[in-house]
Amino acid sequence: MKKLVLAVVLVLSAVVLSWLGRQGTRAVAALIVIGIVMPSIGLFLLVDAAAFRIYLRRPTIVLAATAWTPIIPTPTPHGTSQTSARAVG
Question: I want to staple 73 with a disulfide (CB 3.0 to 4.6 A). Which of 29, 78, 81, 88 is the partner?
Fold first, then answer.
């Protein structure tokens, strides 16, 4: 099973990189713009590898938080609360 997942990841990576390679100049321009607009993106990409492995082994809490988020009321700066469903609609 792990070999199949690895093979799929490698094939998808090759497809994405091939597409990106065909884009050439547009891809370089887009990366430069992204680098200028979002220089601190590296702060968001820092991941605690040990904690990440724990979440991968036991995804129940991540799934529960994902399912619970649109249900619970979230505080707003105005002192009222709203749910995600009402905020969208």
Answer: 81
Say yes or no: 55 and 36 in one domain.
no
Predicted TM-score of the model (pTM): 0.32
The C-alpha angle 20, 26, 29, rounded to 5 degrees, equals 115
Return d(Cα 18, Cα 36) in angstroms, integer: 25
Shared domain for 25 and 3, answered yes or no, is: yes
Tens-digit pLDDT string for the chain (89 aa): 888 888 999 999 999 888 888 888 887 888 788 878 776 666 666 778 888 888 888 888 878 877 877 776 666 666 555 554 454 44
Total domains in the chain come to 2
